[in-house]
Amino acid sequence: MRRGLMLWSPFAELERIRREFDRLLEELWPGEEVERAFAPAVEMYETDNEIVVKAELPGVKKENIEVSIKDNVLQIKGEKKEEREEKTEALHRVERVYGKFERVLTLPAEVKAEQVKAEFKDGVLEIRLPKAEVSKERKIEIK
């Protein structure tokens, strides 16, 4: 059997550790309500003309999301609200996470903040940030 190289992702590893920690707490104190933080998964990539950020926000409504940019730092914040019709049902297990969230991302290049566009579709927030014109290196003739 042939195996390829896998890229190590520190964020995926942190998420795995968090899930293991939650599982351990559930085993130690079954039935106890454990507060979990909701932090949406984010993907950021760069093309020649723009930076694209995608954030997974399943169950979050568009009106509960706020996106801002200042000093080349992108901030995504909002709230995933719990929706229950009746409070009388007996819960046996709660793994879904609700509450306020915030992700702050330093951008890898200068962007035109006034031209940033955001779209929310099927639980994925996509933000397109056009790159600012950066002066190219130019050789200067010495006289």
Q: For the residues shown, what is the average pLDDT?
A: 81
Number of domains: 2
Helix content: 10-25%
- Radius of gyration, taken over Cα atoms and rounded to an integer in Å: 21 Å
Strand content is: 25-35%
Distance between the termini: 65 Å
In this structure, how is the largest beta sheet organized? 4 strands, antiparallel
| CATH C-level class of the largest domain | Mainly Beta
Assigned CATH architecture of the largest domain: Sandwich
Molecular shape: elongated
CATH topology (level 3) name of the largest domain? Immunoglobulin-like
Q: Tally the helices: what do you get?
A: 1
The SSE order reads HEEEEEEE
Structural class: alpha+beta
Tell me the number of strands: 7
Write the layout of secondary structure elements.
Blueprint: H1 10-28, E1 42-46, E2 50-56, E3 65-70, E4 73-80, E5 99-106, E6 117-121, E7 124-130
Antiparallel strand pairs: 1-2, 2-7, 3-4, 4-5, 6-7
